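In this section we turn from sequence analysis to structure. A common task in structural bioinformatics is to predict how a protein folds when a small molecule is present, because the ligand can shape the pocket around it. The inputs are simple: the amino acid sequence and a SMILES string for the ligand, here nicotinamide-adenine-dinucleotide. Study the lines below before reading on.
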Amino acid sequence: MKDFKDKVLFVTGGGSGAGFGQAKLFSEAGCKVVIADVRQDHLDQAVKYLKDKGAPVHGIKLDITDRAAYAAAADEVEAVFGTPPQLLFNTAGVNTFGPAEASTYEDYDWVMGVCLDGVINGMVTFVPRMIKAGLGGYIVTTASMGGFWGGPITAPYSAAKAAVINLMESYRASLGKYGIGVSVLCPASINSNIHNAGETRPAHLQKTGYLMDQGAIDSLEFIYKSGLDPVDLAKWLKKGIEEEQLYIIPYPEEKAALEAHFKLIVDSVLPVEADPVNTQRRVDAWKAMMEMAKEAATDPAKAKTGFGRANPELDWVKPAVPRPAVPPTD
Ligand SMILES: NC(=O)c1ccc[n+]([C@@H]2O[C@H](COP(=O)([O-])OP(=O)(O)OC[C@H]3O[C@@H](n4cnc5c(N)ncnc54)[C@H](O)[C@@H]3O)[C@@H](O)[C@H]2O)c1
């Protein structure tokens, strides 16, 4: 997508940090912006900022983990701007860090609830509406470099971010046929307010295994202060959307670590020579399955397999044309 004029943008976490940077930049590019945020103070200051500029903006107080509220927010967008969004930015996120072995269910439920379930809620709420509107569009989820690898103190956060990277790969492979592009933004650090994320942690999920005292918050703030400016990050995001990049990673210092990580994975694969007969049998079966599924997609009436098809009651879903498990770059 290259033309953002009059596009409706729905950005979660748009009241602060990366999301606010996206709201500012894409508003300047001509979007009508809907800012959704769980914090009223963040929401108010962000909406006021854009209103003062005379830009079309609408604020919705939304906890993205609340599915009923999410559906109501989607109805509100259509009531206010007349269409579902053409641009959906799943940007809201929270973090908290401590040893994996100290993690409580509440640490997982809070972080994965916002960072993974919140994104799923955005996709399940908006994707059908976007497809039915037939206007095409673009979806970006903000993951994190932390989603490419686990670490000793990042278990819930890395797991959630890994999942949303993977989720965007799946949706990208699926939504292209509707003219809807998908990217995943993977920042290292951002100069944001995420060190204060604990302030939105719900009362019933307070039990934590991590030490989150003022010292911990101060050191996180110190790290984030040197992070990328949210508007600069949004500029890289816009470029990534214009170039339809799947992964948007405007952090050159991460390249060597990514290369080392993925080399380790690739080097762990058994070479064909070690087991050629079984390998060939599996490859042949996979190819046959792909052919059957491709036939099913192009002529559903003659389908020999039900594998991977939508419930026929959903009349807005086009059949998926499967393909081998290669990096989803198209
Ligand atoms: N700050 C970093 O260094 C960094 C690095 C990598 C990835 N990220 C990711 O960037 C995204 C944006 O974070 P940020 O750093 O700008 O933080 P931020 O705290 O400045 O902004 C996040 C916004 O999301 C809102 N939010 C939190 N929970 C919500 C919920 N349940 N429903 C709706 N809104 C909610 C917050 O109120 C806040 O306004 C997050 O997904 C985060 O994981 C941040």
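The pocket of nicotinamide-adenine-dinucleotide is lined by residues 12-13, 15-19, 37-39, 42, 62-65, 91-95, 114, 118, 142, 144, 187, 189-190, 192-194, 197, 200, 224, 227 (CB under 6 Å). As an exercise, try to locate the residues that line the nicotinamide-adenine-dinucleotide site and compare them with your own expectations.
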